[in-house]
Amino acid sequence: MREPTRLFVLRHGQTAWNAEMRIQGHVDEPLDDTGRWQADRLAKALAGEDLTFVYSSDLQRARATAQPLAAATGAPLVTDPRLRERGFGRFEGQTYAEIERLWPDEAERWRRREAGFGPGGGEALEPFYARCVDTVLELAAAHPGQAIAIVAHGGVLDCLYRAAVGVDLSAPRSWKIGNATINRLLFNGERLQLVGWNDTGHLEDDLLA
Fold first, then answer.
1. For residue 94, which phi and psi values (nearest 5 degrees)?
2. Is 209 a domain residue?
3. What is the pTM of this model?
4. Model pLDDT, residue 2
5. Is 64 inside any structural domain?
């Protein structure tokens, strides 16, 4: 039997648009001051982990979260556009309230998590899920017996949680995906397994100050 791959699956730090509840998608928003602080705390929390690689979405909010982690662990940083957030088309740049007001029918289809629906010009949920899970399985398969970090986005992490736990794509989300929280998965050579989710300890105390 192959040795499992340990995965630290991490959402980027906060951006101004996160704070405003504004949809980002592929828009390349930077971290805000809070997000940079979160990235630093995340790097300190995982500095003792023997990471082989840090893989990151190529969007700057993910890269800026991954860079301190790579520096703290000495692991090479590799960006991969396949780890990008879902493309939300004309929803990008809008708040949830604005989407409800401007496109109520599309907002309803989005809320229902229709697998084949993509907002105008955006990415449908089903191919997005396949992109995220297939990419992470490929990366994990390359590192048996090792530990890697995946720095990505809320939608990407949602897909990975569903794959690990066996939650249907259409089911509403009942788990948290906080900015810069620590999530742990295993890859056993066939599938992902959940170890721990939404660990916020490094963001809540002064132990790492």
1. -105, 150
2. no
3. 0.96
4. 84
5. yes
Residue bearing tokens 């929803």 = 91
Q: Quote helix, strand, coil % in the chain, to nearest 5.
A: 40, 20, 40
DSSP 1-53: -PPPEEEEEEEPPPBHHHHTTB--TT--PPB-HHHHHHHHHHHHHTTTS-EEE
Nearest in space to 34 (alpha carbons), one of 48, 55, 51, 17: 17
In this structure, is residue 185 part of a structural domain?
A: yes
CA angle, 109 as apex, 125 and 122 as ends, to 5°? 45
Q: What's the CATH code of the domain at 87?
A: 3.40.50.1240
Question: Rounded to 10 degrees, what is the CA torsion of 196, 170, 14, 199?
Answer: -10
To which residue do tokens 């699956």 refer?
Answer: 9
Residue 208 pLDDT more than 70? Answer: no
Cα separation, 141 vs 4, whole angstroms: 9
Task: Enumerate the active-site residues.
Answer: 12, 85
Give the span between the Cα atoms of 187 and 169, in whole angstroms: 20
Q: Can you spell out the DSSP letters for 109-127?
A: HHHTT-TT---TTS--HHH
pLDDT tens digits, 20-70? 999 999 999 999 999 999 999 999 999 999 999 999 999 999 999 999 999
196 Cβ neighbours under 8 A, 6+ residues apart: 182, 183, 184
Give the pLDDT confidence of 87-113 residue by residue, as tens digits: 999 999 999 999 999 999 999 999 999
